[in-house]
AcrR family transcriptional regulator
Amino acid sequence: MSTERKDEATEVQIKNTAKRLFFGEGKFNATTQEIADAAGVNRTLINYYFRSRDKLFDLVFKDAQEYEQKRTESIMFSELPFKAKIEEFIDESFLMAKEYPYMELYMVTQFNQGCYFKDEEGMDRMLKKFYEEFEVAMEEGLILKMEPIQFIINMISLISFPVAMRPLFQKTMHLDDKEYERILTDRKQIIMDTLFCK
Amino acid sequence: MSTERKDEATEVQIKNTAKRLFFGEGKFNATTQEIADAAGVNRTLINYYFRSRDKLFDLVFKDAQEYEQKRTESIMFSELPFKAKIEEFIDESFLMAKEYPYMELYMVTQFNQGCYFKDEEGMDRMLKKFYEEFEVAMEEGLILKMEPIQFIINMISLISFPVAMRPLFQKTMHLDDKEYERILTDRKQIIMDTLFCK
DNA sequence: ATCATATTTGACAAATTTGTTAAACAAAAA
DNA sequence: TTTTTGTTTAACAAATTTGTCAAATATGAT
């Protein structure tokens, strides 16, 4: 029996390539052949390392979910004041979106096709914490009076949508890559001004 | 040569079913067989009426695009004051989203796979008009000072995202259908409060 | 060097999906 | 009725995609 692998470069290579294709280039329907070609390996290796195409998909999806949740948790449970947390979250989100612009979209389409949620408990803990801090911020007059859920929806929407919808926006508004990057950079302040009263 | 058809019920039936599957249920990868089954017709009829699967897809996509643009145009070129136009737009969007929750998402994924835009000219005219009215509203202090493009992004994001992301949100936040409907209803006022200063 | 194990490859089989064709069927026109 | 036109079906062919298997190759340990 072998518990260790001498060279798992290929396995990692395949997984990363799949990640890049899905999240980086939006090729949600990439075939095993396309993935193998892009990774520069034989197609059969995908079956060898991951048993099936679906298994590979699930794995990439799970990893992404975990990563995103950890990232968010580390911000939300930090010692930063509420408003700074949101700023941090925006920064992180845009950074992520720069490398993997289609990730959010992929997550949604996966959920649409009946996908379960991984660490539900962790998410609940985080939401609870958020709700508490949100109440305080609202009392302080930092935020317009509203249900916390509405604030969350506002926040996620303002951050994620322009990233997920980028190709649509760019084409509709005739914006080149450089111009859109600038707009996204400017957005951090815009979002903060939109979310907070003062 | 035949310019008229005695009974185009089947053709319409297929098109509507495809529309429902794509936009209503989010089955973006539905096969011709699935579409035919859902429509209760023989699969070959899809080829008979639309020549190929792709042609059917293109047609449904084009129709949806046209419809959405017409809808928006009729509001934007109406005699309503700026703020009322936005309200109208929100109402229309939510109504649309109720029947076809996955439409926005579908549009984006189509654009991601390199799709052209239909009536570019019409869109440009509309944007120009919007920019003009936006400038006025900003001068009047109705809106925080920002680039019009940022306002548009804010608006579309706040409206469309919670609709497109509904399955994700609902599962994450443990909300049943009724509760989410209520949240969407409440959102109109929230969005207006978020977009406008007074 | 030999052996055992891990990795990679090519060839093949199976499944899925799409598109074509010829024939059956229905309905209106001649 | 016969003909014509339009519609629907079943059977087939082609293409695509996935998964399996045995053989080939590499790599490290003995």
Notes: Residues 2, 5-7, 10, 41-42, 44-45, 48 of chain A lie near DNA strand C (CB under 10 Å from a C1').
